Amino acid sequence: MIRDLKRVRNIGISAHIDSGKTTLTERILFYTDKIHKINEVRGKDGTGAVMDSMELEKERGITIASAATYCEWDKHNINIIDTPGHVDFTVEVERSLRVLDGVVLILCSVSGVQSQSITVDQQMKRYQVPCIAFVNKCDRSGANPIKVSRQLKDKLGHNSVMMQLPIGLEDKHEGVIDLVAMKAYYFEGENGEEVVVKEIPEDRMEEAQIAREEMIDAASLFSEELTDAILEENDITEELIMQAVRTGTIAREMTPVFLGSAYKNKAVQPLLNAVIDYLPSPLEIENEAIDLDNNEETVILESSDFDKPTVALAFKLEDGQYGQLTYIRVYQGCINKGDTLINSRDGKKIKAGRLIRMHSSQMEDVEAIPSGHIGAMFGIDCASGDTFVSPKINYSMLAMHVMEPVISLSIVPKDNKAQINMSKALNRFTKEDPTFKTYMDHETGDTIIQGMGELHLEVYVERMKREYDAEVETGQPRVAYRETITKKALFNYTHKKQTGGAGQFGRVSGFMEPCEEEFEFVNKITGGRIPTQYIPACEKGFQACMDKGPKLEFPVTGIKVTINDGAYHAVDSSEMAFQSAARGGFLEAYGKAKPVIKEPIMKVVIETPNEFQGACMGLINQRRGIIQGSQEEGVMSVIESAVPLSDMFGFSTVLRSGTQGKAQFTMEFLTYKKVPQSVAEEIARKKLEEKTKKK
Amino acid sequence: MLKKDLILKSPVSKTIGIDNVKDGKFGAVLSRAGVGKTSFLVQIALTQLLGNEKILHISLDDSMEKINIRYNEGYTNLVDCIGYVDPQKAVRVWEDINPNKVGISYNESTFDTQKIGDYLKSFIKADLALPSILIIDGLNFDKDISDKLDALEDLNREFSIFTWFSMKIHREEELCADGFPIQLETYKDRFDKAVFLNPIEDKIEAIILKDGDRTDQKHKLDPATMMIVEYT
Questions:
Q1: How far apart (Å, rounded) are the C-alpha atoms in residues B69 and B145?
Q2: Is the same domain home to A234 and A346?
Q3: What ipTM was estimated for this complex?
Q4: Cβ of B122 and A622 within 8 Å?
Q5: Same domain, A142 and A279
Q6: A691 located within any domain
Q7: Is A217 contained in some domain?
Q8: Which of A230, A261, A284 is the endpoint of a domain?
Q9: Which residues of B lie inside 8 Å of A (Cβ-Cβ)?
Q10: Tell me, what CATH number does A668's domain have?
């Protein structure tokens, strides 16, 4: 692995579904000599793309797991993470962005900025990841890269700047005009591997000069030298422009836009040059950790010094045929084969055994993974998001943003063998994916799996069957309802049991009110009305009630409990007694605090041919959905809406039949909202039915 | 309570009259480009939203995002106009009325009443209340659009929905004999209401061109907010 970090790039490729992320990665690997034959994502030979190594990925033509790979271009090492586009697998995108230094944001030249591009953009903002844009599919009918660049400005607020102009579009797409070098690039040979540089066609010269001026104007904001050169009418060198664009891009104040068609092998090589020219090396990104031994103070990690104590983050786990494979990014120091590391989460020592770097499903053994690089370790027992450090320090990288699951499904193994295999599978999946959770419903004895959407759970059920030979029967998907209160209510509860033997006594008094946090506990007891040692027991008692709401037994959220009075008994009070008093207080106030049921509301975006726009909006109306707006974009319409998750089950079938299969939709969690009274009654009725059945 | 106060302060209350907003079939807000047709249409729509009605706003010029921004601005202007309002209350009212507005952005060439009809039918199918008014912003009245207006009249009949249009007029064109701009003159029999926004010095004069006995009334509006500044 290259130790000169200036020549390392850790990049991600992110975009909306079917924008061609995997196809682009496949071309990059081909041009950088990592693979010798191009396989299409949905190729006729059924091989599937190299990056889609999971059988299910190849079949469905979607990327589920991020595959990490590396390649070399112009004496630089590029580590690439190919990320899934489906929103249900969004945690994969989040994890990748956490460890990347830059992103190539792919946009379709016809569809432009789509719903998932917006989600990815928000994630990039959260982790402050610089990006360059690649407008792909310029060979498609209706391609309009200039419009897409404008959408980047209007919809995502990027300062997008065209770095190239297309030479021909749709079926006449031949190449690109480079506005920095002012040359025309054509891509010849069977797979576009020969880059032919020519002069810009005369009839395009004026247009190219105008676009170049616009680009230089935008770049000049980031370089005084460039501004001086413009004002003094000196020669504007390519280096000067590139340096200015690089500065603007790394500061996230500029998004250079490139274009081409990965599928038709057009303009992938200039994009690789752009990755090197404009995206940052690990040296240019500041990474932070917290020092657990020093009041959780923030420490800046020094990626340039390989002799510093090691700090690395595990961002992805995979269970391969040789045991657990842990993907790591090293931020400081160097992990050598045989090094002892500490997992700062649990303080456990681990030994770095086999170190590898990945090329999709193939691996290459390495002796060390130096700072700034992405690699993987074998046989380490850990969870995703763990930090590994040298024994002399106790740092932790900040946690990744992980969303709570919104949908659940009961699964029942078909036989005993399936039962054993199912446990193994669930154990692995929950370690790999923090948004996938599982628990046992003690009342029904069923295993419940929870996730971010129907597809998310569907994929795991399918993987259980294929990878673990665990056939399961699934129940109806269930929505993760919540309970909350809507007004303030007082409680004053005395727990008293003095019927022979050691008694129990505790009184708590105070109020509960709605709040933004999940649960908040405020102690305003004065004068020792409740002795300090019993206060944690009170909090525990209140918090225990949050797991199962008294109204319909859904988890309770958004409650602030304040205790301001109470009483104790010198002999009969105990922690147990105060926990019981708190539970009694909770129940007493809860009923008076107007409890309501809340349901997850999803942001649903439908893309449909214009002729089905009215019909699609109708489908949303029929599902208690609220249409936020609709926009025509060429021959397609985009409909944005907010719909309760409970009404979205089976929507893909309904949408398909209502639009002759021509519309598609994406769905992601938006917020929790109170359910209307009629629906609450229906939920209560179903709950009661279930209870009666169980009895 | 806040909703009622906002309705009373709306420029629509003074100029057109709240009960009169959807009385008939078609209404038009006329002016030259950039004077404030859309802002005034948004105020018309806001009175309906504040009255707990639904509205459908179709724009042939603005994107979906821009439509939403215009409503946001219109609401803020209206709230600012009544002096101090508890910001949380104002947000709550906005969150209550905003879901009742649907903004659709069409290209003029593909604008089709059939799609609107399909959408409105879905309300009936789902047993939901229909939008009370339809706003169509950006339709070009310089062309012959009789067919489109016929189709919209059909919608009006089928769904009892009143339609407000923006109507762009041109500086260089002279008024017709009865004082109407040519765009309105051509279709005047179809319109029950027409409000002309005329910039005068630093104000905008809203002149009722057509609305039964209200005709010829004039009101002055602040060009930045479209709120009433003087009642004449």
A1: 29
A2: no
A3: 0.82
A4: yes
A5: yes
A6: no
A7: yes
A8: A284
A9: 63-65, 67-68, 99, 102-107, 110, 114-119, 121-123, 125-126, 128
A10: 3.30.70.240
Q: What is the CATH number of the domain that holds B30?
A: 3.40.50.300
Q: What is the pLDDT of residues B100-142, one digit of tens each?
A: 999 888 888 778 888 888 888 888 887 888 999 999 999 999 9
Report the pLDDT value the prediction gives residue A550, as an integer from 0 to 100.
86
- Beta strand spans in A360-503 (E): 362-366, 368-370, 374-378, 387-389, 395-397, 407-413, 437-440, 447-451, 472-474, 478-479, 482-485, 489-497
pLDDT at A61: 43
Q: Which of A593, A608, A625 is the last residue of a domain?
A: A593
Helix (H, G, I), strand (E, B) or coil at A463: helix
Q: What is the pLDDT of residue A443?
A: 65
Per CB-CB distance under 8 Å, the chain B contacts of A114 are none
In sequence order, which ranges of chain B are alpha helices (DSSP H)? 2-9, 11-15, 37-50, 64-81, 87-97, 113-125, 146-159, 182-186
Predicted confidence (pLDDT) at residue A36 exceeds the cutoff of 70:
no
In-domain check, residue A692: no
Residue A42 exposed, middle or buried by CB count within 10 Å (0-12, 13-18, 19+): middle
Residue among B105, B107, B125, B159 with most chain A CBs within 10 A, to mutate: B105
Range of the domain at A532: 487-593
Check which CATH number belongs to the domain holding A525 and give it: 3.30.230.10
pLDDT given at position A82:
62
Q: How confident is the model at residue A597 (pLDDT cuts 50, 70, 90)?
A: very high
Counted domains in chain A: 5
- Closest CB to B115 among A155, A614, A628: A614
Count how many residues are written for chain A: 695
Quick one: A233 and A323 in the same domain?
Answer: no
Interchain pair B115, A627: CB under 8 A: no
Residue A279 and residue A293 in one domain: no
- Are A103 and A247 contained in the same domain? yes
Q: What is the mean pLDDT of chain A?
A: 83
Question: How far apart (Å, rounded) are the C-alpha atoms in residues B95 and B100?
Answer: 10
Residue A17 has pLDDT above 50, yes or no: yes
pLDDT of A212 = 92
Q: What b/e readout covers A181-197, taking b as 16+ CB neighbours within 10 angstroms?
A: eeebbbbeeeebeebee
Residue-level pLDDT at A280: 92
A615 at B interface, C-beta within 8 A: yes
pTM: 0.64
Overall domain count for chain B = 1
- pLDDT tens by residue, A197-235: 889 999 999 999 999 999 999 999 998 888 888 888 888
Residue A258 has pLDDT above 90, yes or no: yes
